[in-house]
Amino acid sequence: MPWNLTPGVTDISEQVYSLHMTIFYICCVIALIVFGIMLYSLIYHRKSKGAKPANFHESTKVEIAWTVVPFLILIGMAVPATSTLIAMEDPSESALTIQVTGSQWKWHYKYFGHDIEFYSLLSTPTDQIRNQQEKSDNYLLEVDKPLVLPTNRKVRFLMTSDDVIHSWWVPAFAVKKDANPGFINEAWTKVNEPGTYRGQCAELCGKDHGFMPVVVEVLPEEEFDQWLVAQQQAATDAAAAEQASLEQQMTMAEAMALGESVYIGRCAACHQPNGMGLAGVFPAINGSAIAAGDVTEHIDVVVNGRGGTAMQAFGAQLSLRELAAVVTYQRNAWDNNTGEVIQTTEVDAVMQGEQ
Amino acid sequence: MSQQYQRYYVPAQSPWPIVGAVALFMIAVGAGNYVISLPEGGGYGGYLLLAGVAVLIYMLVGWFRNVIDESMSGMYSGQMDRSFKQGMAWFIFSEVMFFAAFFGALFYTRMIAIPWLGGASNNLMTNEVLWPTFEAVWPLLTTPDGTTTEAMGWQGLPLYNTIILVISSVTLHIAHTGLEQEKRKQLTAWLGLTILLGIGFLTLQVEEYIHAYREMGLMLNSGVYGNTFFLLTGFHGLHVTLGTVMLIVMFFRVLKGHFTPQNHFAFQASSWYWHFVDVVWLCLFVFVYVL
Amino acid sequence: MNSIVNDAKTEAAEPLLDSSDHGEHDHHEQPATGIKRWLYTTNHKEIGSLYLWFSFIMFLVGGAMAMVIRAELFQPGLQLVDPHFFNQMTTVHGLIMVFGAVMPAFTGLANWMIPLMIGAPDMALPRMNNWSFWILPFAFAMLLGSLFMEGGGPAFGWTFYAPLSTTYSGDSTALFVFSVHIMGISSIMGAINVVVTIMNLRAPGMTWMKLPLFVWTWLITAFLLIAVMPVLAGAVTMILTDKFFGTSFFDAAGGGDPVMFQHIFWFFGHPEVYIMILPAFGIISAIVPAFSRKRLFGYASMVYATASIAGLSFLVWAHHMFTTGMPVAAELFFMYCTMLISVPTGVKVFNWVATMWRGSISFEAPMLFALAFIVLFTIGGLSGLMLAITPVDFQYHDTYFVVAHFHYVLVTGAIFSIMAGAYYWLPKWTGHMYSETLAKWHFWCSLVSVNVLFFPMHFLGLAGMPRRIPDYALQFADVNQVVSIGGFAFGLSQLIFLALVIKCVRGGKKAEAKVWDGAEGLEWTVPSPAPLHTFSTPPVVK
Ligand code: HEA
Ligand code: HEA
Ligand code: CUA
Ligand SMILES: [Cu+2]
Hints:
CATH topology of chain C: Cytochrome C Oxidase, Chain A
Number of domains of chain C: 1
Family (chain B): Belongs to the cytochrome c oxidase subunit 3 family.
Structural class of chain C: mainly alpha
Low-confidence stretches of chain B: 1-5
Shape of chain B: globular
Oligomer: heterotrimer
Transmembrane segments (chain B): 16-36, 48-68, 89-108, 157-175, 187-204, 224-252, 272-290
CATH architecture of the largest domain in chain B: Up-down Bundle
GO molecular function (chain B): cytochrome-c oxidase activity
Mean pLDDT of chain C: 92
InterPro entries (chain B): Cyt_c/ubiquinol_Oxase_su3, Cyt_c_oxase_su3_dom, Cyt_c_oxidase-like_su3, Cyt_c_oxidase_su3-like_sf, Cyt_c_oxidase_su3_a-hlx
CATH class of the largest domain in chain B: Mainly Alpha
Organism (chain B): Ferrimonas lipolytica
Bound molecules: heme-A, dinuclear copper ion, copper (II) ion
């Protein structure tokens, strides 16, 4: 563990670091002087040493001095602070814009003008968190799909949220900005060195606030451009796969296997691995009316979420196959046994009916 | 000066505060429970809440009776009177700050939140990306999510109510002068008139609310316009109700022959409260209705 | 301040519970005894004791929750509690410590000491005083009770930011809201009582600039309370309507703004933190001169500094919100105002040091705690100054650096000052000297462990550990372990204090009227223990 802020990998983070050190040293000096004088009194003006109390109890001169001097020190601090702040708050003339959306409890990244968007979820296995497995090096600071950025280009972030307030923080960039639902905050960075940088959500956002890391992979410019192309290709492929999946039928076994992994990854944080939910907070799925009732309604809840509750819309987060599988799983796991296998076409119908 | 340091009356032990504490507890638990079970129709909370209010009233009656008895039997001094007055003044200040929170919310939404949703200041992208069709205007008749409502004009009922309240402050002042000049008739008549005006105000406000809900579709949950409208006027209405009750109590005490030109703290406190409620209304009228 | 003629002495010597004649007329009935004595009391000393005991119990309860937090954070991974419960512990720990421990403790001290210090027979409105106290236990019973509801108690942090506390919170939010309302009513009534007592019940000759500083600081604190507690009430009310009645104050979809909640909350919240420190300044300003045997340096500037801190406290609230995306101009304004507060606070620290300078200093328990206060509060204040620097606050915000800052100002600030005050006045309250040995043990154990507990948190924060998390990356493991050990040790050390107080109430060496040779003020002119009724006829202060 570093015992201090680190200078980071951007010009701004270096400025912030040196500002931090300057203020810190000034504070140390002030503390040393004050405590030094106090200690001197405590040692030399002790009753047990026969000290007799003096009589003075005010002095306008001294009092003015120790009002004015701190004031001047403060002005000395405010000047560099002001210029750094103004530089930090200027996101104009950026080369790339990325929308960062927090939601309970993951990040979503969308590259403007490139047709690329994806979710980024904690990838530390539950067993490690529950102490049933050795913890990996990047315990709690690892994700399935990191944000990818280029070096040397000014990147602008548009922060927002789907539900509660989150805060996107990468210490090495000195960027921390709240993601407020319904509003967009802007921030920017320009990274000097390639590498992998880790941070965490920095605003209490509910139960799994501690399990919402930010991982950024910074690539040299050319590599980044290649990555962009590859991602766009992948996006096209995925769309084709969605289309293709409409033609395929899933068997119960297939659907249950895929469904379970999706359930554990997305649903279990709230509804719990055993489907029992948390009484009074998150409803159970095991034995619930929805999981036993009308299929269309069940799909609708999963795809579109429930407004005014913590239930999110998963339609955009999962593929048709995954959606179908997870609904199948919910309807057949634990004590639920409708025996129905939901197919992609049924999910698609609900999603189309929307528009 | 020596007058100022008479013996200060320290009351003996009293059961009323603990009764009051229990009452507040019942009200709080009852209200909490009621609110939680609203979707199922209210649960037992409502009854507990009402019982709490009943105990609170019982407590207030008992407590004030003690105070009145003490006051009438001359145990209080000028100094005590000052304590009461200062206490009341600070209480009113705390009420001012309570309203300040809601006025603050009104100003913030009007001057910051809504313009920002419309793309002002550093929130250009808020509008472009999240609410591209939203238009920042006040009164906010179409919210970002598309709920619509109508705005309450200041003409008609609100204007009448303003006139009523302003007049009631004057009539109360005349009653007060009557008290100070020992003109009992003037006191009773004008105090009675003030109470009638208060009740008139409340009636009109109820009518206004019914009109808003039935005909205008302006409701508590009609976006921030409805939110601020109903919470500000609603809390004000509650205060008018309380003020009217205080004046009614004063009326009966006047009939019983209480109060002297020198010694009428309770009357004065009620009158301060009434003037305070009046001033709040004037602010409301300007910021909620007219502007 | 100087010589005090006290004609209350004779009368003050009456026995504790003699109702036959203590300057009150018309006592037909015997006063109730037993439990009813405490339920019905109108006596400022009894009510003061109630407040003090209540706050100490709350300190233990809130501390026990802190122990749960520290135990879970002892190692990485989830061991003892699940994240949802962890959040409840953090939230309720903060609420209990702020509203249940520190504020009632100061109110208790005010009740006990202000009438004694200004030569008043009691508080100005004694029955209301009792009411202010007795609604508190109910409020906290409600808050604690909500932890046992289905879905658990409040889990959104003591700052209850919307929409986590509205759309995304549990049912218990309703109970939370109403219990905060009650706490607010209690504080407002208590504060009104203090203001009126000070303005109206001072003994003849007790002019404004002769008031002991504890009285001055409390007067200003009470003003802050009356000004901001209603705003908190407004904030929770809007939370209630947003959650249960479909309003959208804090929801952009209806034209509101979640950040507006933070503005309203911190408009209350920042003055609130000064509410928790100004009376502490008053206590320290009484103790330092007493044990330096020298008059307080710069009395007038102390008063002005207190008033400036209170005034500025209304202009700095958004320093808690630097990352919320305010425009630069607003960030600059709040940064500058926040930095300015260091000036009057510095004046206070310098005055205390100058008071000790060329004094004749001795180190009894009150003084030890006061000295620790000065040093450790200053450390907390300086880290506060670092937090005020906006561009760097982006790095510190919502990390353990902030947690370190506020525990330095709250635990080694507010709590230590309360301890100092308790040692200073305990002989006056009980009539017995406390055990100096136990006191020394308590002090040194607390001093060492509190720093082991809170100092390393600075490093955790700088290294990047966010606050309000039940589990953390492996690199933070070692330091967290040290912190937790410090926490347990500090908690256990407080049990020494509990033992000491109980022992002191039960018996001990008889205390004189003037317990400390250097102490000044009217409270030292009445016997120890202070009789139930003092100054029924005001003393004359010359
Ligand atoms: C008793 C309580 C108390 C007190 C007294 C203070 C005092 C101060 N606080 Fe603190 N603060 C809290 C309680 C308190 N605070 C709490 C509870 C929080 C967190 C809330 C939450 O989020 O949960 C918080 C958070 C907090 C933040 C937000 C951090 C964040 O979330 O990002 C900031 C930022 O500016 C801040 C600043 C300050 C400053 C500048 C002071 C100043 O008043 C300090 C002034 C004192 C000194 C500076 C030292 C003495 C002076 C001298 C020796 C003179 C010479 C000095 C100079 C010239 C520099 N505080
Ligand atoms: C005056 C206020 C006050 C006080 C006195 C304390 C006292 C303590 N606090 Fe507190 N704390 C806050 C106010 C306070 N805190 C606030 C406002 C927050 C923010 C909440 C939020 O984020 O919303 C917070 C948050 C907070 C956190 C961060 C939680 C998080 O972000 O996840 C931690 C973590 O260590 C912590 C620890 C402690 C400890 C160990 C003590 C110790 O000093 C406590 C010592 C006392 C005792 C332990 C009780 C006495 C002993 C016993 C009852 C016997 C049993 C003892 C043992 C078994 C050892 N506190
Ligand atoms: Cu997301 Cu904390
Ligand atoms: Cu603050």
